[in-house]
Amino acid sequence: MDQEFYTLGAFEYAADVQIIKGKLESEGIPVFLKDENTINTDPLISHAIGGVKLQVYSRDKEMALNIYNEIRSYALDNKGNLVTCPNCKAQRSEVYYSRKSFIHKLFPFFEKKVQMP
């Protein structure tokens, strides 16, 4: 069972996953980044292959999920409250960046989060 993996998430760029990887490893959880080298070689194919997959051993799934959920950023409204999804009423919506302009596609870290009404 040690060789079975669980994918915690997929990320567009390898740099996006490094903080989570570091935190999991600091807690003693071995982490594997599937397709990291492929995307580092050619970032334009990230969408085609599903991004960099953050994987852990299945035996570490529960502990890894708890840590992963603690450090993820969730969308907040203007008052600092979690945004509620109008469809499913979940309050754990993740931050979303539209990347509509050419500049934001090249430099996504310059784009500001869209505040929900």
Number of domains: 2
Largest sheet: 3 strands, antiparallel
Strand order of the largest sheet: 1-3-2
Structural class: alpha+beta
The quaternary state of the protein chains shown equals single chain
- The percent range for strand residues is 5-15%
Q: Estimate the global geometry from the Cα principal axes.
A: globular
Number of strands: 3
First and last CA, distance: 47 Å
What do the pLDDT scores average to? 82
How many distinct helices? 5
Helix content: 25-40%
CATH architecture of the largest domain: 2-Layer Sandwich
CATH topology of the largest domain: Alpha-Beta Plaits
Secondary structure blueprint with pairings:
Layout: E1 5-11, H1 18-26, E2 31-34, H2 36-41, H3 46-49, E3 52-57, H4 61-71, H5 102-106
Antiparallel strand pairs: 1-3, 2-3
General description of the model:
The chain is 30% helix and 15% strand. The mean pLDDT is 82. The protein has 2 domains: 5-71, Alpha-Beta Plaits (2-Layer Sandwich); 73-117, no CATH class. The chain is globular. The protein has 117 residues and is α+β, with helices and mostly antiparallel strands. The relative contact order is 0.16.
